[in-house]
């Protein structure tokens, strides 16, 4: 299953909750916080950035692997982190990334 395509937008009406919507007004999520509206807004901004962050991580991983010179070098830690974020974002939280290989647990 695919996620709702971006961009995701924030609707903030000054309420205790902040809402995140996708294209065509598709409801994505509601952010709130016991710490107050400012933290809810910050959380909503992070959620709304998710499609862009996923795209950036995927582009970085693809770029690394499309460069033939990199096949002889060890994958950098930043790439492992990007791959783990991609896996988590796609909903496969039961996968661990080890040395660039996905291992189901």
Structure description:
The protein is of the alpha+beta class and 105 residues long. It folds into two domains: 9-48, no CATH class; 51-104, no CATH class. The protein has three helices and five strands; from the N terminus they run βββαααββ. The chain has helices spanning 37-48, 50-66, 77-89, and strands at residues 9-11, 18-21, 27-31, 95-98, 101-104. The strands form two sheets. A three-stranded antiparallel sheet has the order 1-2-3.
Please mark out the parts with pLDDT under 50 across 5 or more consecutive residues, or reply none: 95-105
| Total DSSP helices | 3
H/E series, N to C?
A: EEEHHHEE
Q: Which secondary-structure class do the elements indicate?
A: alpha+beta
Helix content: 40-55%
Quick summary:
With 105 residues, the protein is of the alpha+beta class. The protein contains three helices and five strands; from the N terminus they run βββαααββ.
Helix-strand blueprint:
Elements: E1 9-11, E2 18-21, E3 27-31, H1 37-48, H2 50-66, H3 77-89, E4 95-98, E5 101-104
Antiparallel strand pairs: 1-2, 2-3, 4-5
Helix pairs in contact: 2-3
